[in-house]
Amino acid sequence: MRHLSVGSLQRMRTLTFGLTLVRHGETRYNKEGLLQGQAIDCPLSETGLQQAEAAGCYLKDVTFSSVFVSDMLRAQQTAATIMKHNSSCSALQMVCDPLLKEISFGIAEGGRLQDVKEMAKAAGQSFPGFTPPGGETKEQVKERVKEFMDKMLQQIGTEHDRWEDETSISAPPDTSPVEGKADDGVRDIPIHALVVTHGAYMCVAVRYFVEELHCALPPGSDRAHMFSLSPNTGLCRFILTMREEHERFKVSGMSCVFIHRGDHIKQ
Fold first, then answer.
1. What is the pLDDT of residues 60-106, one digit of tens each?
2. Torsion of CA 36, 38, 43, 48, to 10 degrees
3. C-beta separation of 65 from 193 below 8 A
4. Could you give the 3-state DSSP secondary structure of residue 23?
5. How distant is the alpha carbon of residue 224 from its chain centre?
6. Mapping DSSP to helix (H, G, I), strand (E, B) and coil, where does residue 31 land?
7. Which element (helix H / strand E) includes 243?
């Protein structure tokens, strides 16, 4: 077995970057309490377009180095509006990825959320956690999250050369003070991915970050709040540190700067 000395551990290189998740703006189905999932590719409502504009104005001075988006219309419209307001996005290409699609709710898509809750109750289960017939399980969605994260890490790791010597192993990355500003946590971090996706998908992703990647929670936040549904155009920001192991880039530390922020839609 090959043993690494403390000195060689300290010489391992790391790269730190920001990750901001955004839920798409409101659609008519959201407003009416209906499930969209994957089968219903509904555009943003007038309110949803206004929310996307508000998110774009809020994030206009935040620097992004890459943009990843679900291939569903509501997410693409939201991302395009955010990018329109942001000068750092002018030279960036929106990368549409089906791995970021919303959860499939099977036969329940297009139906009322209340109906699914009753379906779950009849099956002796609770919602969320219940998978309607033909729908995706949380485990299946988590696999999509893991696949997307790996894909993003490999892309960022090969595109950027801002590597630093690692001084500690698996420690959560330091973040700048949280002051309630749009650039909280990423003020001095030039590598920053914007990811526009969906509410239920984000719930699964955040749970994976906390439970399996050991993401540090922001001060004053508990797991119940972390795992709750983000509002339309709600923002979640994370700082990740990755290192290269066996010619693959992997997360070595992760912390949450803020979760489900909706300051821009309250103004």
1. 999 999 999 999 999 999 999 999 999 999 999 999 999 999 999 99
2. 60
3. yes
4. strand
5. 17
6. helix
7. strand 235-245
